[in-house]
């Protein structure tokens, strides 16, 4: 959250943190954000969100609330935008680690690596349904646009 709050403040955007503790909390949180003029959702990585993906996407659509997600499956399910790690890069890196381990390297001696490539997936159909016009510059920078 600190990085989201820092980025938001540089654009003079107010961020409020809302946590759902149970499935029953989700609709109230989405509805409350929908009532805020210019409001939207940033869904952060959590097993709770993954398990409730379809409900979250459905409620964001019902309440006409733009949302950005952390995993491609949300955009594939009708979510507006997903900004997520490129998992292909993980698999290539994992193969290299397996090779090194099989050749005798100790796993504890291998450096921790972080993802350096991210995908931006935009669901243009959802944007249209929400009445949003996605800027051409953003569409051009997307890894994929779902029509």
Q: TL;DR?
A:
With 147 residues, the chain is α/β, with parallel strands linked by helices.
Structure description:
The chain has 147 residues and is of the alpha/beta class. Helices cover 45% and strands 13% of the residues. The chain is built from eight helices and five strands. Strands 1-2-3-4-5 form a five-stranded mixed β-sheet. α2 runs parallel beside α4. The longest helix is centred in the middle third of the chain and has 16 residues, at 87-102. The chain is globular. The model has no long low-confidence stretch (mean pLDDT 92).
SSE string: HHEHHEHEHEHHE
The biggest sheet amounts to: 5 strands, mixed
Share of helix among residues? 40-55%
Termini separation (Å)? 31 Å
Helix/sheet category: alpha/beta
Overall geometric form: globular
**Low-pLDDT regions:** none
Order of the strands making up the biggest sheet:
1-2-3-4-5
Mean pLDDT level: 92
What is the tally of helical segments? 8
What is the total tally of β strands?
5
